[in-house]
Amino acid sequence: MLQKITRRKIQITLGLVWLLDGALQLQRQMFTSNFANKVLLPVSLGHPRIVSSPMHFEIRLILSHPALWDGLFALVQLTLGVLILVKKTNKVGLIASVFWALGVWSLGEGLAGMLSWHSTLFMGLPGAALIYAILALAVLPNKDNNKPAYWLPIIWASLWILGTIYLLLPGQNSPADSSQMLSRMTSGAPRWISFLDEHSAAMIGHMGFWFVAVVAIIQIIVGLFVFFPNNYRKSAIYVGIGASVIYWVLGQQLGGYFTGVATDPNSGPLFILLGVAILGSDWLPMKQLWKKIKNDVSKILI
Hints:
The protein has helices spanning 7-24, 34-44, 49-64, 66-85, 90-107, 128-138, 152-167, 175-184, 191-205, 209-224, 230-251, 267-279, 286-301.
């Protein structure tokens, strides 16, 4: 089953996600000032100037001709999706998507709040666009190997450990912080999502410090056990996929599809796709993994 997870299948999934993003960009509200004022402006707040200044410039630019810029963004993303889906052009599409995704990550997602130090995996850390770029690099066409890149477990572990570090920072390291995050999200959400958020917030608020401790331990295990062979590795990824589903529903509100200004599905589905890609990649012992990375880096530099 896992042998059927190929680079091409991940490419196709990425292509479809880019088409979804392009379609979301074609929502009626996106052609108005709402895209800049309701999507980009709130994201730009609370960041250091190195992040917020370029975003504010972008916002002013978009507000000068909202429909024109939104149409352009939609066209680019739809084009990326088509290029990736067509086998003859998928390499061009994947490389172009890396640059576009990094631009979206910095100018559209504000680096997912990483430099404001107020972000968690639950809320969408490290940003969907960054994972788009990582996955695109991991599935570039390779005649010698049809499996996703062998180095993806390092990315997986880094993201889960990074998420744990952010979880333990002041302002988000207590059950009260998590409970408040959930409570703030009920406004405007469909009734069933509001119901889940309200009851989850109440439950978390009564769990005490153990809630944060257990979540932190689980995330560390999910990150580190990906380096273990066989069932340990698979179990870590399956738990990570399960946690990503929970985070996507409760913390990321299914990408806010109900708002009319959603731009992507958020990071939850991308974490799931990342886990699936790792299940299809080659497992290497830690020593061999680092040796291979060192050799590949040396080839690039030389």
